[in-house]
């Protein structure tokens, strides 16, 4: 293991970024205001341009062009699903396991914890 105070590599940056994005989606409003929608769209669209791993950002931008976020920022459930599918696209590329993207799976992982209470 690399010491914790080293700069993040692609994997560590990825884990931190997915944690931020999925958690933000999990706490996004059920009925976002136009300003909240616009800010969420701006956040997502900034990734292809600004993400520190450039090939990652480029591929994410290609995927977002095929699956525009505009249609999915209308509610917490829709956004959580869309983001999970984008993460699965990267998982497929890297040969990692795909996730079920229903709101139950997403909330158990990113908001409420599993039903057996082991995260409490
Ligand atoms: P991660 O994929 O980081 O996932 C973290 C946790 O999220 C998992 O432990 C799991 O509990 C949960 N999870 C997994 N899948 C889902 C899902 N679909 N929905 C919700 N939760 C889920 N790496 C590269 O090598 N090449 C790339 O091109 C690349 N592109 C990336 C693009 C973006 C926008 C981001 C944010 C990251 C990218 N990464 C890329 C990093 C890569 O996705 C992983 O973060 C990294 O490989 C570490 O993987 P991990 O197995 O620890 O889990």
Please render the helix and strand layout as text.
Layout: H1 10-26, H2 34-50, H3 54-66, H4 76-94, H5 103-110
Bound molecules: flavin-adenine dinucleotide.
Please tell me about this protein's structure.
With 120 residues, the protein is mostly helical. It has a single domain, classed as Four Helix Bundle (Hemerythrin (Met), subunit A). Helices cover 62% and strands 0% of the residues. The chain is built from 5 helices and no strands. Helix 2 (34-50) packs across helix 3 (54-66). The two termini are 27 Å apart. It binds flavin-adenine dinucleotide. Flavin-adenine dinucleotide (FAD) binds at residues 10-11, 14-15, 17-18, 22, 47, 55-56, 59-60, 84, 87-88, 90-91, 94, 96, 99, 109.
Brief rundown of the structure:
This protein has 5 helices and no strands.
Provide keyphrases for this structure:
Four Helix Bundle (Hemerythrin (Met), subunit A), binds flavin-adenine dinucleotide, mainly alpha, 120 residues
Domain count: 1
Distance between the termini: 27 Å
Q: CATH fold name, please?
A: Four Helix Bundle (Hemerythrin (Met), subunit A)
Largest β sheet strand count, sense and barrel closure: none
Low-confidence stretches: none
- Give the class-level CATH name: Mainly Alpha
H/I helix tally: 5
CATH architecture: Up-down Bundle
Looking at the structure, what is the overall shape?
A: globular
What's the CATH H-level homologous superfamily? ERV/ALR sulfhydryl oxidase domain
Structural class: mainly alpha
Number of strands: 0
- Report the C-alpha radius of gyration, rounded: 15 Å
Helix fraction by DSSP (H/I, runs of at least 4): 55-70%
Proportion of β residues? under 5%
Average pLDDT = 97
H/E series, N to C? HHHHH
What small ligands are held by the chains?
A: flavin-adenine dinucleotide
């Amino acid at each position: 293991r690399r010491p914790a105070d080293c700069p993040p590599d692609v994997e560590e940056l990825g884990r931190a970024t997915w944690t931020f994005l999925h958690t933000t989606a999990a706490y996004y409003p059920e009925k976002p205001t136009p300003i909240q929608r616009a800010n969420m769209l701006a956040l997502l669209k900034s990734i292809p341009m600004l993400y520190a791993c450039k090939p990652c950002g480029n591929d994410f931008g290609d995927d977002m062009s095929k699956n525009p976020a505009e249609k999915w920022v209308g509610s917490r459930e829709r956004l959580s699903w869309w983001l999970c599918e984008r993460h699965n696209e990267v998982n497929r590329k890297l040969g990692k396991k795909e996730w079920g993207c229903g709101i139950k799976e997403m909330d158990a992982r990113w908001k409420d914890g599993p039903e057996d209470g082991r995260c409490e």
